[in-house]
Amino acid sequence: MATTVDVAGSNAVRRFVIDPERADPEATLLTDAPTGRSWTRGEVADAVRRAAAALLERDVRPEQRVMLVLADTPVFAAFFWGAIWIGAVPVPVSTMLTDADYRFLLADSRAVGLVVSAPFAATAGTAAEDATFLQFVLVDGDAPSPGSERVDDALDAAGTAPAPFPSARDDVAFWLYTSGTTGFPKGARHRHADLDCCVDRYAAGILGMNHRDRVYSVAKLFFAYGLGNAGYFPPATGASAVLNPGRPDPHEVADHVRQYEPTLFFAVPTFYAALLNADLAPDTFRSVRAAVSAGEALPADLHRRFRERFGVEILDGIGTTEILHIFVSNRLGASVPGTSGVPVPGYEIELRDADGHAVPDGEPGNLWVAGESVTVGYWNRTDQNRRVLHGRFMATGDEYVKRPEDGHYVYLGRSDDMLKVGGIWVSPAEVEACIVELDDVMQAAVVGADGGDGLVKPRAFVVPARDVDLTALPGRVQAHVRDRLAPYKYPRWVEVVEALPTTATGKVKRYLLRERPLVP
Fold this sequence. Notes:
Layout: H1 13-23, E1 28-32, E2 38-40, H2 41-57, E3 65-69, H3 74-85, E4 89-92, H4 99-109, E5 113-117, H5 121-128, E6 136-140, E7 149-150, H6 151-156, E8 172-179, E9 185-191, H7 192-204, E10 214-217, H8 224-237, E11 240-243, H9 250-260, E12 264-267, H10 269-277, E13 290-293, H11 300-310, E14 314-319, E15 326-329, E16 342-343, E17 348-352, E18 365-370, E19 377-378, H12 382-388, E20 389-390, E21 393-402, E22 409-414, E23 419-421, E24 424-426, H13 428-435, E25 441-450, E26 456-464, H14 473-484, E27 493-496, H15 510-515
Parallel strand pairs: 1-11, 3-4, 3-5, 5-6, 6-7, 10-11, 10-12, 12-13, 13-14, 26-27
Antiparallel strand pairs: 1-2, 8-9, 9-19, 14-15, 15-16, 17-18, 18-21, 20-21, 21-22, 23-24, 25-26
C-alpha cells in the first residue's frame, strides 16, 4: 500500500509568519533599538512574502541554500522566512568572519544566493566573487559592486509570493554552522519540526513566554541561541523583540534596556561580566522578570554578583547549535548557581564514559542528549556524524557531572581542546597556525585560560626564533591574529617560552600549559 505524507501546514512559515499575522496584524513584532522604528506582524509578513517572491524571481529552488550575512534587522527575518516559504534553505552565518571564512562557507554550502548587510559586504562580497555556485548577491544598503543588487530594490520589484511550499515536518528548513574538533565549520541541518520543539519545550515550557513579554537578546540572530531568543520564539508565543543591529556595548545595551523595558533578557556570561564591570544604575534591569545565560557555563560568582547588583535572577543553561536551543536549564525562582540546571522536559540526558557506558551520579561523563530538535546531521561530514550521532542520542563533547543531591548538572569542560569564547567555538589549531605565520615565531600552542572572572579566553605560548625582540613579540602576535582572524580569536595573553612541553611522539602536553599560572 502506498505511503502518504501529510504536508498540510508543515511549512514553518505557517506558525511563525502567517498565523501571527492572522491573529493580530497590527501587533508590534520587531523594534529597532537605535531608531525606535517598529514593525508589526503584518509588515514583517509582507516583507517575508516579498523576499520569497524575490528569491523565486532569481530562480532559487527548493532545497537550495541561501546564505545570510545579516545584522539583526527585519531584513534578516524577511529572508530567513522568505527562503523557508519557497522550500529553500536559509544559512545564517556569523557577521564577524574573514573573507577566507566566507569563501569556505559559500563553497561548502553551495549557496546559490548571498544576502548581506552593507557593513559586511567588503568581506563577504569579496568572497562571493569566486564562489562557484553563487548566482546572485543582494546587499542591504548600497550595492558595492556592479554584480550585486540592493535588497530594497529587489523587494520593491518583487511580485506575488505563491502559497508556501508544501514542506514536511521532517524536511530540512535551515542550516547553522558550528565548529568542531577539527576547527572546520560544519553545517548542522535542522528540520521544520525542530523549531516547534524549542518553542514548546523551552520558550513556553520553561520561560512561560507570552504576549506580555518583550525580548532583548544580546546574542545575535545568526547564533542558534539568538535565533531562538529574538527570531522564532516571539512570533510563536505572541511576544515582541527589540533588535540591536550593532556590536553590543554594555552602556548602549543598558540604555536600550532602560528605554524599551524588556521583560526577558538574553546574553552570554562574558557580557554579563561586562555589564557588572560597567558603571550602571542598580535599577537598570528593573523591567526584566528573567535573564537567561547560555553559550558557555556561567560562573557561580557572576550569578551571585548580578543578582545582588541588579536584583535579577539569571537562568543558566546549555544549548548547542546541533540541538538548536537550551535543553538543560535552571528554573525561575529555583536556579542553582554554578550549574546548568536540570533537563528541559522532552529531552533525555545521559552521562557516559569514553566507551559509551552510563556513569553513576557524581561521576564525570560525556553529555549525551536525545530530543526532537537534535540535528539530522552535519552536511557532508560522514565521519563526524558517525562519531557524535548514536541512534536517538547525540554525544555533545561536553563533560558534565550530575549532582546526586538535586539532579543538577555541572559543566566540567570540553572533551577535546576546543575553546568557547563569548559563546563561540574557537579552534586552538587555527590560532596556532596563524601565529606561526610570523617569521619571529617557531612554535605556538594555544589553550584556554581564566583571567579571574571564570570565563575562558585564548592564551598563547610561543617559542621565538633567534634574535627576536622578546619585549615586542607578544604585542606583535596579538596584532597579527587580530588582523587575520575574527576578533574574538586573538590570544588575550601571550607568553614567550624556550620550548613547549611535548610527549615522546612530539605532541604538545596541553594539560601542562593549562596548569601554568598566568604571568601578571
